[in-house]
Design goal:
The chain has 402 residues and is an alpha/beta fold. The chain contains 14 helices and twelve strands. The protein has a seven-stranded mixed β-sheet. It has a five-stranded mixed β-sheet with strand order 8-9-12-11-10. The relative contact order is 0.12. The structure holds pyridoxal-5'-phosphate. Pyridoxal-5'-phosphate (PLP) binds next to α3 and α4.
Length: 402
């Protein structure tokens, strides 16, 4: 079955006597046992729930994991934490040095104090990953393209390097989703998602997922999920299942909009640089074209001036100022103050993350409306202050406090 068919044609209600079309929400904590010594398939929803099982079966198929190879978590961070549990004190994790702020915090403030040796490598640079691997390395963790700077790592080569050192490769596939990139097919061992983003697509649930190829690894992840009690609840599982059905449609449309918007921004005089893997000459663009079905719908741009960036964001009407991305509604943010604020300023500088960087996530609105919104915001924010435009005067003279 092709991916788009699989999204809507799956066993939604295994064993359901009413033959419902949509998966029932098994809103229950406990399941009655017919025999006090011989438990049935389900006993307690922390360990397993039929609504969540349908979701997990679907996630395993979409990411090409093994049977029973997916677990749904209460958040992307819970999913990441379950993967970090594979690493013991004294062992090493090598992570891409342009990772999500929350992942950086988890590695620095949870994994490192627990005795794990954490190293960061610009995995998109030739040889950078191999230089950080040693015989104690258990896990390599990457994102591609990174968020928001769109640095591209070759998943196939990262898998080869990790395996050569005896380590597992985990890819956080939140940015592209399996509609565009399937890392397990390229040799990765583990795929992680913040399902809060594209998989759900409607910004109405926080969820995470881990999908693996190896049944023994799947058992370890399932053990941690149950032992730590981080599984996704039945209603949120249902919301995620519902959102997933339109994944391909949403991604296609959002990506088409992002391409148009990237071209518009690249041609605007107030924009000094656009970071989007879909633009010609983007570093690593050839790797992405070989491995993925497209660059996705998140992009970023620089203006050269943090106050100007802030003014642009404040003047957008359709693009709402929110953290997160991947929803059907378009959003805009200043990563240094929002999604990446948990990375200290000096580390952000070291990693060449500009303070004036604006990130956009393109939704499913009419793209002409979106371009018009950005255009008026860019033009207003860059026009000189006048008596008839008090807002402009306020913004250009007031100090920025964020
Ligand atoms: C948002 C995000 C996370 C964290 O997921 P939550 O669902 O917010 O816990 C992890 N990785 C990436 C790439 C993200 O964008």
């Amino acid at each position: 079955m092709k991916f788009e068919t699989q999204l809507v044609q799956f066993e939604a209600c295994p064993g359901d006597p009413a033959l419902a079309t949509s998966t029932p929400i098994y809103q229950t904590a406990t399941f009655v046992q017919e025999d006090p010594e011989q438990f049935g398939r389900y006993d307690y929803s922390r360990s397993g729930n039929p609504t969540r099982t349908v979701l997990e079966t679907q996630l395993a198929q979409l990411e090409r994991g093994c049977e029973g190879g997916a677990r749904a978590f209460a958040s992307g961070m819970a999913a990441l934490n379950a993967v970090l549990r594979l690493v013991r004190p004294g062992e090493r994790i090598v992570a891409g040095s342009d990772i999500y702020g929350g992942t950086f915090r988890l590695l620095e403030q949870v994994a490192r104090p627990y005795g794990i040796d954490v190293a960061f490598a610009p995995t998109w640079e030739e040889g950078a990953l191999a230089a950080c691997l040693n015989d104690r390395t258990r896990l390599v963790l990457i994102e591609t393209p990174t968020n928001p700077l769109q640095r591209i790592t070759d998943v196939q080569r990262a898998a080869e390097a990790a395996h050569h050192a005896g380590a597992l490769l985990a890819v956080d596939n939140t940015m592209l989703s399996p509609a565009l990139l399937r890392p397990l097919e390229l040799g990765a061992d583990i795929v992680i998602h913040s399902a809060t983003k594209f998989l759900c697509g409607h910004a109405d649930v926080t969820a995470g997922a881990v999908i693996v190829r190896d049944p023994a690894l799947a058992e370890q992840i399932a053990f941690t999920c149950n032992a730590e009690g981080t599984a996704l609840g039945p209603f949120d599982s249902w919301l995620l299942l519902r959102g997933l059905k339109t994944l391909a449609l949403r991604i296609d449309r959002q990506q088409a909009g992002a391409k148009r918007i990237a071209t518009f921004l690249a041609g605007h005089k107030a924009v000094s640089r656009v970071h989007y893997a879909g633009l010609p000459n983007h570093p690593g663009g050839d790797i992405l074209r070989r491995h993925a079905k497209g660059p996705g719908s998140v992009l970023a741009f620089e203006t050269g001036d943090r106050r100007l960036s802030r003014a642009i964001i404040e003047r957008c009407r359709l693009f709402k100022t929110t953290v997160s991305f991947g929803s059907i509604t378009s959003t805009i943010s200043l990563p240094c103050c929002m999604s990446h604020a948990s990375i200290p300023a000096d580390v952000r500088r070291e990693r060449a993350m500009p303070e004036d960087l604006v990130r956009i996530s393109v939704g499913i609105e009419d793209v002409e409306d979106l371009i018009e919104d950005l255009n008026q915001a860019l033009n207003l924010a860059t026009s000189p202050p006048t008596a008839t435009a008090p807002h402009v005067a306020t913004y250009s003279s007031s100090p920025v406090s964020v």
